[in-house]
Automatic annotation (TrEMBL):
Gene3D superfamilies, per database record: SIR2/SIRT2 'Small Domain, TPP-binding domain
EC code: 2.3.1.286
Transmembrane segments: none
UniProt name for this protein: protein acetyllysine N-acetyltransferase
Keywords of this entry: NAD, Transferase
Domain of life: Bacteria
Root EC class: transferase
C-alpha cells in the first residue's frame, strides 16, 4: 500500500473511532534532537543500560546513576517539544484522541499541551528512595546529594538516597500507573503507536488490550519493525513520526 493510501486509511480510522489512545516511545522525540534507545546511534548503543540505569545502582553507585540522569535532564532542557507533540496535543483538544500514554520521561507531551498524560516509565523529577518525597527536576543541576527534608519518623533530616523518579532496569512498573494505562487501552477502539519498537515488557502488552478487549484496531507509525506489526491495520515505516503526523493532520483538516 502506498504511503498516501496509508495516511488516508489512518484518517478514516481516527474519524470513525469513538475512543482513541496514543502510545508513544522515544521515536516521537527524535525530531527534537533527543536520541532514541536502540538505533545505531541510540542511547543504549553508547551506554550499557545495566551499568548506568539499573536499580542496583541506587545502593551500589548512586552518584553514577544520578549523574547519568542529570546529563539526560540537561539534554531535555536544551531542546523542546517538536511538531509531533504539538499535533497530538491539538488532537486531544479537538476531541480526536482521548488519552496519551508514553514510555518517555522528557515531559514534552505536557509541555506541548497534552493533558493527563500517563507516564509509564516515570519522569524527570527527583525522588527520595527512603521517604518517597518528590523534588523538581532542576534538583539534578545541583549534583548528587541526600534528602534534606524533615523525617516523618524521627526528629531529624531524612538523609535518604536521591534518585531519578524513573523505572529503572530491574524494577516493575508502578501498579497504579499500569492499571490506568491498561484501562485506557481496553476502552479504546483505536490505538496509535508512535515511535516505539514495542519491545519492552510489560508496556508492549497495552496495545494488545485494545485488540483483545474491544476488538479495536492498531496503527503503527515507526521506522523499522516492531513486535506488534502483525496486529497492525496500518503500518507506516517509510516516514518519521513528525512527517507522518503532519500529513495525517493535513488530511484531517481537509475532511
Amino acid at each position: 500500500m502506498q504511503t498516501i493510501k496509508k495516511i488516508e486509511k489512518v484518517v478514516e480510522l481516527i474519524q470513525h473511532s469513538r475512543s482513541t489512545v496514543i502510545f508513544t516511545g522515544a521515536g516521537v522525540s527524535t525530531a527534537s534532537g533527543i536520541p532514541d534507545f536502540r538505533s545505531s546511534d541510540g542511547l543504549w548503543h553508547n551506554h550499557d543500560p545495566l551499568k548506568v540505569s539499573h536499580v542496583k545502582l541506587v545502593y551500589e553507585d548512586p552518584k553514577s546513576l544520578f549523574s547519568f540522569y542529570a546529563d539526560r535532564y540537561r539534554e531535555f532542557i536544551t531542546h523542546e517539544p517538536n511538531g509531533a507533540h504539538r499535533i497530538l496535543a491539538k488532537w486531544q483538544q479537538d476531541g480526536l484522541i482521548n488519552k496519551v500514554v508514553t514510555q518517555n520521561i522528557d515531559d514534552y507531551h505536557q509541555q506541548a499541551g497534552s493533558k493527563n498524560v500517563i507516564e509509564l516509565h516515570g519522569n524527570m523529577e527527583v525522588r527520595c528512595q527512603h521517604c518517597n518525597r518528590l523534588l523538581p527536576a532542576s534538583r539534578f543541576l545541583k549534583g548528587y546529594g541526600r534528602c534534606q527534608q524533615p523525617s516523618l519518623e524521627i526528629d531529624e533530616m531524612c538523609n535518604g538516597i536521591l534518585r531519578p523518579n524513573v523505572v529503572l532496569f530491574g524494577e516493575e512498573l508502578p501498579q497504579k500507573t499500569f492499571k490506568q494505562a491498561s484501562k485506557a487501552h481496553m476502552e479504546a477502539e483505536l490505538c496509535i503507536i508512535i515511535g516505539s519498537s514495542c519491545s519492552i515488557y510489560p508496556a508492549n502488552l497495552l496495545p494488545r488490550q485494545t485488540v483483545s478487549s474491544n476488538n479495536g484496531k492498531i496503527v503503527i507509525i515507526n521506522k523499522g519493525e516492531t513486535e506488534l506489526d502483525h496486529l497492525a491495520s496500518v503500518k507506516i515505516s517509510e516516514w518519521e513520526a513528525l512527517l507522518s503526523l503532519q500529513e495525517i493532520d493535513r488530511s484531517l483538516q481537509k475532511t
